[in-house]
Design brief:
Elements lengths: L21 H7 L13 E7 L18 H9 L1 E7 L5 H10 L3 H4 L32 H7 L3 E5 L18 E3 L23 H13 L6 E6 L11 H6 L6 H23 L6 E7 L29 H4 E8 L8 E3 L3 E2 L3 H8 L17 H6 L8 E6 L10 E6 L2 E6 L5 E5 L15 H18 L12 H9 L12 H7 L1 H9 L15 E4 L4 E3 L4 E3 L6 E3 L7 E8 L3 E11 L7 E6 L2 E6 L5 E15 L2 E11 L7 E9 L1
Parallel strand pairs: 1-5, 1-6, 2-8, 2-9, 3-4, 3-5
Antiparallel strand pairs: 2-7, 6-7, 10-11, 11-12, 12-13, 14-24, 15-18, 16-17, 18-23, 19-22, 19-24, 20-21, 20-23
Helix pairs in contact: 6-8
């Protein structure tokens, strides 16, 4: 049993949220939604912002008071080796909601990303400015299975027509990050909270309490405990022994918001089971940023938010079932990933991930949840993070296979190899002592990077080695000493923080979709040949059936102005079909490339094939195969010409 603060239950809010029925909205979209079934669980997915893996009491943190979440952990499943898609906000959320690696999505940092600066040896890889609409989210898939869907809190995956209402959510309230502080005497039923944690929770439970024959999916992405933080003096004094009293006070507030939610869910008059998943988007912030002192540490793990070391990518993950369908009281040490939530929740809802989604990078944990099936300890996980961050990290990739982990640095191609079974803090680099393992993991990592079409970070023509040394070498934030107080760390890293901020002053981040971008959609193609055609099915939406080497595709377009244009294709190629040579022709230029085997024709990757200098005016772009290696050349979903 969960109890509210002072033992008092929270009265259900009387506000009614009216929304269009799932069946009617689906009918307007030309879809046929599945009728909801009684055994489909309600699903509550709570994602807090920048909470470190070690921050909760149930994960060993004695200076933070989180009794509600600790109780949830004891009654549910607690994962000690859970990972996010990447250690930064937007990328992590995109991966969680789609089940796909951020590298596959080409959304690999926070939006809009850190600007390029002379201190950085490489340029940040360009990325999408929003989650592409063709990607399917958990909400879209659950709607297909008869769920009503709601989001309350932080989206951070694009605005306007890239907002959550266009990605499967019926009811949306993007509550701001700035709320009002709650005094000790104020009940959480009326307070908003410094990061609006109580307001967000009230809106979420109102949605959940709506009478409906359909199950619900309620996504609650909180702003707490992302900086900047605030708390009353009284609240900070209650946590004065903590590493950061300010941070500890906010975690207690976060815990009370979860108390309100769990109590409300357990009182719902329904026979449905409700799954409650609690997690963080990425690791905790271990360096000073916006505040003079760091707000947390991730001990015993190395580094934090922004880094591919364990402190940045290992996150808390708790799963609880109100009707006891999930066997509780378990602590699971085998690796799992946020990428697993998409296939798991769809299967728990009685479905399979639709073909329109394409292959996902996660695996279903349904049998592990419901039948306590053991997980493999030898799983392989991958990350590619071709960016610099505000926390001081540099472009890197990583792979974990079993207990072995390799971190590959893009600047100098150096490698760090760790055995997490004996060195979870990643202190001892074993690459020289175990070159065979390092080489094997690097090879696997490079094959994976090629398979998902990663965009590498390129050399920076403005590179200043003196600035680089000051920021990244003289004070390496991945090796920030643990065990020191927040005040000591704040003083030691004050000048570093100021320089980190100064080098990007007045500079704008460069996204992958700037003005001047032209997108050629599959639906606008003109096809020439025997079999090639536009395939309009929702799970395809491609130029496909490309079984003849003499068939070719053409698009008419208008170049808005003279300039250099990067050419990028989004395509898929079935297993065993890679290797065809294809020429792309426009404005008197031709670029040949080799089609990659993506494992499935609907498993789309983005690949930049080169740059053309084009003149303003009307022209055509042609895609012509030179050779065909197997059954079909490829499927193309779109071509992007991006002005550089």
């Amino acid at each position: 049993m969960f109890f509210l603060r002072n033992g008092c239950p929270i009265a259900a809010c009387a506000v009614t949220i009216w929304f269009t029925s799932i069946a009617w909205s689906a009918l307007l979209r030309g879809e046929a939604p599945q009728v909801a079934e009684e055994n489909q669980p309600n699903i509550v997915l709570v994602v807090v912002d920048d909470l470190g893996v070690s921050d909760l009491g149930c994960y060993g943190r004695s200076d933070h008071k989180t009794p509600v979440l600790d109780a949830m952990a004891s009654k549910g499943v607690r994962y000690t080796n859970a990972y996010c898609g990447l250690p930064i906000c937007s990328a992590a959320r995109a991966a969680l909601l789609t089940g796909k690696s951020p590298s596959r999505l080409h959304l690999t940092s926070f939006l809009p990303g850190r600007a390029d600066a002379p201190s950085q040896k490489l340029l940040n890889a360009r990325m999408h400015s929003a989650l592409p609409l063709e990607e399917k989210t958990i909400a879209e898939e659950l709607k297909r299975l008869g769920y009503r869907t709601g989001l309350f809190g932080k989206w951070h995956l694009g605005g306007g027509h890239h907002g959550p209402t266009h990605q499967g959510f019926d009811v949306v309230d993007e509550v701001s990050a700035k709320g009002t502080l709650a005094e000790e005497s104020v009940q959480v039923s009326t307070a908003d909270g410094g990061k609006n944690e109580f307001l967000i929770t009230r809106k979420a439970v109102t949605f959940m309490a709506e009478k409906s024959q359909s199950p619900f999916f309620c996504y609650v992405p909180h702003h707490i405990p992302h900086v900047m933080l605030d708390a009353t003096d009284e609240a900070k004094n209650r946590h004065k022994e903590a590493f950061s009293p300010l941070y500890a006070a906010n975690l207690r507030s976060m815990d009370e918001a979860m108390e309100m939610m769990i109590e409300t869910v357990e009182r719902l008059n329904t026979d449905r089971d409700t799954l409650i998943i609690f997690t963080s988007d990425n690791g905790g912030l271990h360096v000073p940023e916006l505040h003079a002192e760091p707000v947390t540490h991730n001990a015993p793990f190395r580094a934090g938010k922004g880094f591919l070391f364990e402190g940045g990518i290992r996150i808390p993950l708790l799963v609880y079932s109100t009707k006891g369908r999930i066997q509780g009281g378990r602590t699971v040490d085998q690796p799992v990933s946020h990428l697993d939530l998409m296939p798991t929740l769809i299967e728990c809802a009685g479905g399979k991930v639709a073909t329109s989604v394409g292959p996902v990078d996660g695996v279903s944990l349904k049998d592990h949840w419901y039948q306590a099936k053991e997980l493999s300890s030898d799983r392989t996980l991958y990350w590619d993070f071709p960016h610099y961050t505000n926390q001081g990290s540099r472009p890197a990739s990583a792979i974990r296979k079993g207990s072995w982990k390799l971190v590959f640095q893009h600047e100098d191609e150096s490698m760090e190899l760790f055995d997490l079974a004996t060195d979870p803090g990643e202190r001892v680099n074993l690459a020289e002592k175990n070159p065979e393992m390092a080489s094997s993991l690097r090879s696997s990592l490079m094959r994976w990077r090629e398979s998902v079409g990663v965009r590498p970070a390129e050399p920076n023509p403005e590179f200043d080695p003196v600035l680089h040394k000051k920021i990244y070498v003289d004070q390496d934030p991945s090796k920030l000493a643990q065990g020191e107080s927040a005040q000591v760390i704040g003083k030691k890293w004050k000048e570093w923080r100021a320089l980190m901020d100064k080098v990007v002053e007045g500079r704008k981040p460069v996204l992958k979709t700037p003005e001047g971008t032209l997108t050629l959609a599959a639906a606008d193609v003109q096809v020439h040949g025997k079999n090639i055609r536009y395939e309009p099915e929702p799970h395809k939406n491609v130029v496909g059936y490309w079984t003849e080497v003499d068939d070719w595709a053409e698009w008419k377009l208008e170049i808005p102005e003279d300039g250099n244009y990067e050419i990028e294709l989004q395509y898929g190629c079935g297993g065993g079909n890679g290797g065809s040579r294809v020429a792309t022709i426009c404005g008197g230029h031709s670029i040949e490339f080799t089609v990659k085997d993506t494992g499935h024709f609907q498993n789309m990757i983005y690949e930049s094939i080169g740059t053309w200098t084009l003149k303003q005016g009307e022209t055509v772009l042609q895609v012509r195969p030179k050779t065909k290696s197997n059954i079909a050349v490829m499927d193309i979903r779109k071509i992007v010409l991006r002005k550089k």
